[in-house]
Write a structure and sequence with these properties.
Helix content: 25-40%
Shape: globular
CATH topology of the largest domain: Rossmann fold
CATH class of the largest domain: Alpha Beta
Mean pLDDT: 97
Radius of gyration: 20 Å
CATH architecture of the largest domain: 3-Layer(aba) Sandwich
Strand order of the largest sheet: 8-7-6-9-12-17-18
Distance between the termini: 38 Å
Strand content: 15-25%
Bound molecules: 5-S-methyl-1-O-phosphono-5-thio-D-ribulose
Length: 365
């Protein structure tokens, strides 16, 4: 996507073909800062500290992290240790494990001296495939937006509510939930996005809003608690969110607060769609609430907020008494029954075992 007239992806190989460059997402929307990663540990830190975040992007970063690690050691034992280090960085988004396991399947059968070059090739393929996948998600989601636009008889924009950031910053490019929005805007269909701020880390306020400003797409930021009210008053035509892990039966684990939006959407007959690449489906998990590990992050993310003051200095300030404890589950699970449909790179399907199997028959029974 374009940033100040220049095309960017969220991760790319540096000019020397060895280092990897990322956008430090902890600095947005205030600073656009590119960082170079040279060691596996740099990639691991970038994922843990959420300089990069979003399920597909942390998978791509881990794939390149293995490349960086292989520059130092390429034996199978070192490779297994590096894989474990990366997979352990964040527990919920399954793309992290998916990407690392895909790299291992490619690398382990090779002699050690061939692994480095093969790793860069495979990481590059993961990134290219992610871009193509998200473009396909955009095309399938566009059909839903178009349908809604015709139902509205072209009266006013199609109002889409999204939660967290599932735009291009969460993937290699285009995004998942925002890919249909970008596709609709490119076709001249008027869209307007309701952007949940997404406490505690405010990915909606700092990342989704920033993306939409850069793309010139009309939007409003809203406090997380405002979505239900807007739905009751007919101001939301569709919800589209991303997901960090989807079960084989269609339960969806996404940023904390997604579940409450799905409940409000159901109560108000607002279609609730989830956009995802096939790599986000965990075919080994069937009951999302019982089986998906939910990342617990530090209490300081709830007790403090980051913002820019009038002198353009970025500061973090407390918003609660120093003695108040806080809990910070980073994701929740929306049961499949609340999801209208899954928008994948292969088409739109019901959020159910049969729906997913119809699009991914190779996953067997
Ligand atoms: O904690 P984050 O910022 O990594 O969480 C990201 C989300 O929850 C996104 O909605 C999800 O990864 C889908 S991104 C295409």
């Amino acid at each position: 996507m374009q940033v100040n007239g220049q095309a960017y992806r969220s991760i790319w190989l540096a000019a020397d073909g060895m280092g990897v460059e990322i956008i430090d997402q902890t600095q947005l929307p205030f600073r656009f800062q590119v960082l170079r990663l040279d060691r596996l540990e740099d990639a691991a830190e970038a994922i843990s500290r959420m300089l990069v975040r979003g399920a597909p992007l942390i998978g791509a970063t881990a794939a390149y992290g293995l490349c960086l690690g292989l520059r130092r050691a390429a034996d199978s034992q070192a490779l297994a240790e590096m894989a474990n280090r990366l997979i352990g960085c964040r527990p919920t988004a399954v793309n992290l494990r998916w990407a690392v396991e895909r790299m291992l399947r490619c690398l382990l059968p090779l002699p050690a001296e061939q692994r480095l070059a093969a790793a860069y090739r495979e990481a590059g393929r993961i990134c290219e495939e992610d871009v193509a996948t998200n473009q396909a998600i955009g095309r399938h989601g566009l059909a839903l937006i178009k349908k809604r636009w015709h139902e509205k008889q072209a009266q006013g924009p199609v109002n889409i509510l999204t939660h967290c950031n599932a735009g291009w910053l969460a993937t290699v490019d285009w995004g998942t939930a925002l890919a249909p929005v970008y596709a609709a805007a490119a076709e001249g269909i008027p869209v307007h996005v309701w952007v949940d701020e997404t406490r505690p880390r405010n990915q909606g306020a700092s990342l989704t809003a920033w993306e939409l400003v850069a793309a010139g797409i009309p939007h409003h930021l809203l406090a997380d608690n405002a979505g239900g009210h807007l739905m009751q008053h007919g101001q939301v035509d569709l919800c589209i969110v991303g997901t960090d892990r989807t079960t084989a039966s269609g339960d969806v684990c996404n940023k904390i607060g997604t579940y409450l939006k799905a409940l409000a959407a159901r109560d108000n007959d607002v279609p609730f769609y989830v956009a995802l690449p096939g790599s986000t489906v965990d075919w080994t998990v069937h009951d999302g609430v019982a089986e998906i590990p939910i990342e617990e992050r530090g209490a300081e993310e709830v007790l403090r907020v980051q913002g820019e003051d009038e002198n353009k200095t970025v500061r973090t300030v407390a918003i609660a008494p120093a003695a108040t404890p806080a809990v910070n589950p980073a994701f929740d699970v929306t049961p499949a029954r609340l999801v209208t449909g899954l928008i994948t790179e292969r088409g739109v399907c019901p959020a159910s075992r049969d729906g997913l199997r119809s699009l991914y028959p190779e996953q067997g029974q």
